[in-house]
Write a structure and sequence with these properties.
The protein is an alpha/beta fold. The protein has helices at about 40-55, 55-60, 75-85, 95-100, 145-155, and strands at about 10-15, 20, 30-35, 65-70, 90, 105-110, 110-115, 120-125, 130-135. It has a single domain, classed as Glutaredoxin. The protein contains five helices and nine strands. It has a five-stranded mixed β-sheet. It has a two-stranded antiparallel sheet with strand order 1-2.
Length: about 160
């Protein structure tokens, strides 16, 4: 798992339009990279809409936002359109980015242990160095943008 002080991977994957997203595209800009389990589920929709609703504030604080899940590009397109999301979503269908981030692993789902995305958010500086990681138990999906902003303003 990546930790504070590590650099995010250069190749982040392909977005909902099939465009490759690289860390170097955000040089000189801070980055919020958030990993979430599944498009159009209650918690993931709440989290995405929270970030959408505070997107302008996050941008004013100097941050770009990228979401990542193992959903397909087509699923991401529908999710973006349905909820008017203003940021790209990486379609990590082979989970390579999620695994590199340490956001893929065993979790409990309805009493069973399964492999899946561990809801995690990484805040990186202008060089792509991770400055803060929000772990699954810390993230409140309906208030995640406020959590991010509170950290940013307090940092």
């Amino acid at each position: 798992m990546l930790k504070v002080g590590d650099k995010l991977p250069e190749v982040l994957g392909h977005d909902e339009n099939g465009q490759e997203i690289r860390l170097s595209q955000f040089a000189g800009q801070k980055l919020i990279l958030y990993a979430y389990p599944k498009d159009n589920t209650a918690g993931c929709t709440s989290e995405a809409c929270s970030i959408r609703d505070h997107y302008e504030e996050l941008q004013q604080a100097g941050y770009a936002v990228i979401g990542v899940s193992r959903d397909s590009a087509a699923s991401h397109q529908r999710f973006i359109e349905k909820h008017a999301l203003p940021f790209p979503l990486v379609a990590d269908t082979d989970t390579s980015l999620l695994q590199a981030l340490g956001a893929w692993g065993e979790k409990n789902m309805y009493g069973r242990k399964v492999q899946g995305t561990l809801r995690t958010t990484f805040l990186a500086n202008e060089e792509g160095i991770i400055e803060r990681i929000f772990l699954p138990k810390e993230i409140k999906t309906k208030e995640h943008a406020q959590q991010l902003l509170a950290h940013i303003k307090g940092a």
